[in-house]
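Researcher: Quick test of sequence recovery. Tokens follow.
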């Protein structure tokens, strides 16, 4: 763990020093760009699934992220894919066969438009919305060959806020700060008492499509059952006209009501990513 952190910090220092040594002077505020970024790094997950266990499970893994961004004169479009799979253990059970195999996948589309501009700070603010579809699938292994599954699958719409700061008026280096708060979601796998019993799935017909029946039994949820916040800070710079790097920290937390007010799933994710960016 310490070796991975040290390696990432060394790379970040080298890339930042490289960025400030470049003298590229393209005014990015008066041009449109298509940016494709492939990122990886380290993700740290913490999960407390009260329906399955009172313990907090945590672990690290190497994630994969792919994004496309359109930077227009007044609008921003982003399409992003994320994949991560890790083994999570608690401080009590870390040396046993008791652990969680956690799969985290998401798809996001974000649109925002210019709302305010602060010319003296070289900063532009954008407001918009984010459509997201995410799956957090967990297999809880209590013995070597015994496991139970738990999951959250949510498709939602959120309020999105973005700021972009260019360090100089003519610069290819800029800092982005993003915040997204979903306000309505269509959630599956609701109202579960435990791993095997649910108000929703007691009458499933196994001779028909299981996935379609589960989808039909989803619920629209708002802040009464789901609270989620996503935040991201990224520093993007280009070493020539078409190639650059993206240093990114991504934070995500959500708390989802599994059954009435008795059980909740609390998931915290911190991601430190280094991306290679191509400007088209």
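Model:
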């Amino acid at each position: 763990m310490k070796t991975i952190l040290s390696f990432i910090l060394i790379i970040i220092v080298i890339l930042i020093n490289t960025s400030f040594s470049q003298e590229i002077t393209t005014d990015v505020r008066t041009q449109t760009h298509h940016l494709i970024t492939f990122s990886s790094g380290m993700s740290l997950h913490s999960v407390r699934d009260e329906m399955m266990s009172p313990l907090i499970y945590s672990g690290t893994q190497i994630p994969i992220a792919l994004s496309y961004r359109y930077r227009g004169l007044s609008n921003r479009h982003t399409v992003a894919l994320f994949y991560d799979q890790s083994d999570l253990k608690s401080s009590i059970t870390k040396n046993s066969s008791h652990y969680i195999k956690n799969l985290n996948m998401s798809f996001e589309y974000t649109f925002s438009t210019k709302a305010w501009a602060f010319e003296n700070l070289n900063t532009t603010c954008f407001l918009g919305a984010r459509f997201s579809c995410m799956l957090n699938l967990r297999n809880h292994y209590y013995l070597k060959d015994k496991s139970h599954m738990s999951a959250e699958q949510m498709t939602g719409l959120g309020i999105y806020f973005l700021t972009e700061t260019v360090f100089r008026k003519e610069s290819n280096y800029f800092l982005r700060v993003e915040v997204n708060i979903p306000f309505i979601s269509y959630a599956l796998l609701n109202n579960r008492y435990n791993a095997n019993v649910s108000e929703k799935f007691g009458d499933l017909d196994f001779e028909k499509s299981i996935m379609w029946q589960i989808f039909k039994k989803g619920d629209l949820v708002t802040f009464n059952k789901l609270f989620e916040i996503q935040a991201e800070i990224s520093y993007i710079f280009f070493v020539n006209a078409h190639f650059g790097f993206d240093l990114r920290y991504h934070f995500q937390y959500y708390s989802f009501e599994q059954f009435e007010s008795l059980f909740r799933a609390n998931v915290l994710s911190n991601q430190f990513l280094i991306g290679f960016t191509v400007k088209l």
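Residues 2-279 form a domain with the Lipocalin fold (CATH 2.40.128.90).
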